[in-house]
Amino acid sequence: MLPASGFGLGFPPQNFARVVVWEWLNEHGRWRPYSAGVCHHIENIVKCNARGSVVLGQAEAQLSPYIIDLQSMHQFRQDTGKWHFPHNLEIPGQPKS
User: First and final CA of the chain: distance in angstroms?
Assistant: First the structure.
C-alpha cells in the first residue's frame, strides 16, 4: 500500500524540497555532476527560458568555454568545438522546515 503523502505517485509531496542535480556525459561514457552552484545557475536559467542557453562561466569561471543549449540538450565547448550531453535528475529532498 502506498502512503498517503504522495510517494509512488510520480510527484513529490508538497512538504518536501525539490533537489535537482545536473550532470554531463564525459568522453569515457561516465556521468559527471556539476557543482551545486552550477546546478543552481542552470535551474535559474531554465525557470526563465527553458529553450535558451546557459553560459556556465557565469557560475564558475573555469567553465567559461562551456555553453548548454537547453533546447537541444547539448553542452558545447567553444574553444575546441566538442559536444557533451547534459541531463538532470530530480532527487527526493529533505522535509521542509
Answer: 27
